[in-house]
Amino acid sequence: MKKILISILICIIFISSNFLLNSVYAATNFDGIVTEGDSFIDAGKKAQDSEGKHIQTVDGSKLEKTVNNVYNILFIIGIAASVIVSAIIGIKIMMGSVEEKAEVKEKLTPYFIGIVVIFASFTIWKVAMQVAKLLG
Question: Where are the domains of the chain?
Answer without folding.
Answer: 2-135
